[in-house]
Amino acid sequence: MKIVVYRRVSTAKQGQSGLGLDAQASAISEYVHRVNAQVIATFTEVESGKVNARPELAKALHLAKVTGATLCIAKLDRLSRNAAFLLALRDSGARFVCCDMPDANDLTIGVMALVAQQEREAIARRTREALAACRARGTKLGNPNGAEALRRAAKGNGASVAAARAAADQRAADLRPVLEDIRAAGIATLAGIAEQLNARGMLTPRAGRWHASSVANLLRRLEVTA
Asked: 2-114, what's its fold?
């Protein structure tokens, strides 16, 4: 059995660091070993699951078709959480297998595609509801003066340091419901939480992207202010 491997991560940072890719590689390697398959090529995409234009996926599918190989992915949602995209792929005639459900048939893929899209929509809805709840409680989301507070803090001004700390505490409080929602979904690792925060468009107090280290800082701050 010949296999063309396709892996996808959502952000350039993940692509550079290997976060997400390592887990996919491990699942695919285990499957390849179990079925005694031959990997003829590996394609890696750095693209959001919301985007249907996938040049690396197109290359992988083309190679699979011309060589008679099977496209292999770690999990169904690595292709997309868009049901129309997955169903179109299923109906394209291309053979592909998901390591998390290698015995799935066309009906199973169709059902899982709809479930994956429903989960994507649920994540977005829960995030909106969590933010709406914050606003209803009178919580001001964001901190437009945070950057200036940090600049003053860098000069050693005691009052400014306190202001920056208060702003960071407020930002952590704003993110508490979002963090609780992520944990309720079963995501507990620092890297996994960072990925979810980035996927939901949440910014760090310095308006940057989340990493495992910044999530750790957030958790420590929430413990102190709880």
From this structure: Rossmann fold (3.40.50)
